[in-house]
Amino acid sequence: MKISGYTCLLFLLCAASCATPRAYLMSPMDINTNTYHTLPMVGDSQKSASYADLAFNAGGSNQQLRDAVLGGRLDFHRAHQFDHFQAYYGGGLSLGNYHVEDIYHFSNNYYNGMNDTVYHYSASNHFYGVYGLSGGINVVIPFDNGKGEWRAIGLETSYQKEFGDFIHYRKGIPDSATDILATYGQVFALGGMTEIVGKTRHGTEFGYKIALGALIFPNGNYRGDESRNRPFYFYNTLHVTKKKVTGFMQVNIGVHAASFQFGVNYNLSKR
């Protein structure tokens, strides 16, 4: 008996739609607070500069990214170029909304016939805010032709603190109603990065950056049957700089969370 491709596709769709409802209440700090920071290139006459940064993010969180997460961030950072090294430091503020999708959650024991714990997540919107500091340093290798550089390896870090309705909402959810429950209100991020930047004969800079890191937070604030899946972030960034303006697009991926981010860095310093 032959099984058509359409039959297989229908089976996979049915299996996905019948998946056991899970609840992964993650923190919006995990992937949405680290934006791109413009740095002066090795060949630039300007060795230090100050930047104002504005970014917006749109994405999802929870199982199958069903909860919508929208937000914006305003930053200020200072960057320096030291021939073989580059560094930046700064701070910023994020504001956004987390939409909880209407769904029923069944405890893992429910399917074993041990109890009938059911929790109803009513559709609701929750404001969140995050403020904090960030910084980074990297080794830079200029191209021999003078038309670009490789920021070969770097270290980035940040400290963020969350406030607003959403952190209080998560703290009010019982452990039995979730598979992962993140209730930490502050987080320390530490990761590595690499980046390549080119420059046209007209002075336009363009580049690609990837970054991967882990999140560190107080014990007892990350619980659930699947809490072995520790939070992390993975960023992919494309950016273009023309004179004093840098535009960037960034894809952020974490544990049960993903978002698309776009923004602008504006050079406030005189060239």
Can you walk me through this structure?
The protein is mostly beta strands. It has a single domain, classed as Lipocalin (Beta Barrel), CATH 2.40.128. The chain has 3 helices and 15 strands. It has helices spanning 5-17, 29-32, 165-171, and strands at residues 24-25, 48-61, 67-81, 85-100, 103-106, 118-121, 124-142, 148-163, 180-182, 186-199, 205-216, 222-223, 232-242, 245-254, 257-267. The strands form 3 sheets. It has a 10-stranded antiparallel barrel with strand order 2-3-4-7-8-10-11-13-14-15. Strands 1-9-12 form a 3-stranded mixed sheet, with no helix packed on it. A two-stranded antiparallel sheet has the order 5-6. The radius of gyration is 22 Å and the shape is elongated.
Instruction: Write the element-wise H/E pattern from the N-terminal end onward.
Output: HEHEEEEEEEHEEEEEEE
CATH hierarchy: architecture: Beta Barrel
Arithmetic mean of pLDDT = 90
Tally of alpha and pi helices: 3
**Biggest β-sheet strands, sense, barrel:** 10 strands, antiparallel, barrel
Poorly predicted segments: 9-17
Head-to-tail CA distance between termini: 73 Å
Write the layout of secondary structure elements.
Layout: H1 5-17, E1 24-25, H2 29-32, E2 48-61, E3 67-81, E4 85-100, E5 103-106, E6 118-121, E7 124-142, E8 148-163, H3 165-171, E9 180-182, E10 186-199, E11 205-216, E12 222-223, E13 232-242, E14 245-254, E15 257-267
Parallel strand pairs: 1-9
Antiparallel strand pairs: 2-3, 2-15, 3-4, 4-7, 5-6, 7-8, 8-10, 9-12, 10-11, 11-13, 13-14, 14-15
